[in-house]
Structures are given as C-alpha cells and as structure tokens.
Amino acid sequence: MKIQSFSLLATAVGFSTLMACNSSNEQPKQSDSDTTQSPAGAEAPAKAIKLAPFADSPEFPGATLTIKDVKTEMVGTDSVKVTLNYDVKNYELKQQTSSATAGECNNSKDGQHIHFILDNKPYMALYNPTHTFTVPVNSEHYLMSFLSRSYHESLKNKEAGTLLHFSVDAKGVYKKLDNPSTPMLFYSRPKGDYVGNDTKNVLLDFYVYNTTLSADGHKVKATINGNSFTIDSWKPQFIQNAPMGAMKVKLELIDKDGKVVSGENTSIERDVQLAQSEPVR
After folding, report:
1. Distance between CA atoms of 168 and 135, rounded to whole angstroms?
2. Which CATH number is associated with domain 50-275?
C-alpha cells in the first residue's frame, strides 16, 4: 500500500510539472509592433502651412517697361513666329537686387529680369529686352510682361508692367486688340522645383490688372495643398512649412462677397515640387 501511494504521488507531481512546462511554452512572444512607443519617441506633429509677408524689397519708382515693336513671320502653314522688342528704363536687367531677401529664398544667379507670361502659362525669365515665340494661326492671346527683382518678386508700380492683347489670323497677320477693362489676375510664383534651403521660404507672387486689392474690395484667394488664405493687399508672401513633395497652388481673384470674379484670367492652378535634396522626383 505504501508503494502504491508513492507511485500515485510521483505520477501527480510529474503531471503537474508537465502542465507547467506546456503552459510556459504557449505564452506569445512580444514583437516590436506590440510595443507601445513612449511619448518621448513620438514624432512632433507637422507645422501648418502659413503665409508670411515681407516688406524689405527695394523700390524702383522710375522703372518702366513698354513694348517698342512687334514683328511676325509665318512658320509653315499653321504657325506664326512673333518677335517682341521691349524698352526698359531706369532698371538694370541682369543686375542682382540689393536686398536681404535675395538670400532668404530662391534667387536667380543671372539677376533682374522680365517675366513673360503668355496666356497665364508658367512665365519665361527674359534677361535681354527681346524675345521670340511661336503661336498657332487663328488664335488670340494675352501677354503680361513685368519687371522682376532677381529673386522673382514683381515690381508693382503700374509703369513696370504691360499687357498686350493680340490675335493672328489664318494668314499670320498680327492685330493688336483692345485690353479688357475687367479685373484680371496673372500667376507668377511659385514655379518649378525647389530644393534644400529654397523650400523654407517659397515666394508667392502674382500680378493684378485693372483693380487693386483691399479689405472691402477685390482680394486674392490662395489655396495651397487644400489650405486657403485670403490676401487683401498686393504684397509678396513667403509660403512656409510646406511639406516636401508635390505642392498644388490655386490663385483666384474674388470679389467683396468671396465669389470668383467672372471673365478672362481670374483663376489659375499650378503644381510645383519641393525636395530636401536632388533628385526632386
């Protein structure tokens, strides 16, 4: 009887030990994904995109830009080559603009220039007062030209910009048309790709025509990556805190009630790219 009792006790102890081992083996291992990250290791939330006005740009009160003459020439049967000659006074093309702002944002190494904006498409920077371009026959166009500082901010005195409304017929004959009396808006910056330090302060600039901006009148609504801003003063702005990658910018000329002004050249959209380093895409 004593031997039987010992045998039963040994069996019970062995069974208990086996169950304990099996229980230990079934416990799940803690993976990295199951670990809760401490607040100290969490990433700071992204800063909101904002517009920051700046006002230290030098003025050029006597600067003027006009178009001296326009020459056209047929190219094949469907296009016309147009050559413009500008007259620039009291402003030096190719000269660097003397301003601290030139070191805070994208600045052209080639200096001051003319912004050539045909039909509100991305502008061409002209460093000489002449330019040749091609348009199709039977077409009508708006050409906005204005003087620009080396860091691409427009001169906003009236004489520093000029609008040319023109058409060419089926035979390539050029005709200057009357400029509309309606308010218009021409997109200038931002444009293209921004890399490194140039992404910190991205210039937002435009050209208004036949109107002024005010708190109780026309304004510009800027929508940047879905964030909307209302601008009631024609002054340059820096876009700050923009994330790297694609940036979508939409500019709209709106009335005192916040409605987009009807007519030509009142709403423009543009895509640009921001990157910490090359390659941009």
Report:
1. 8
2. 2.60.40.10
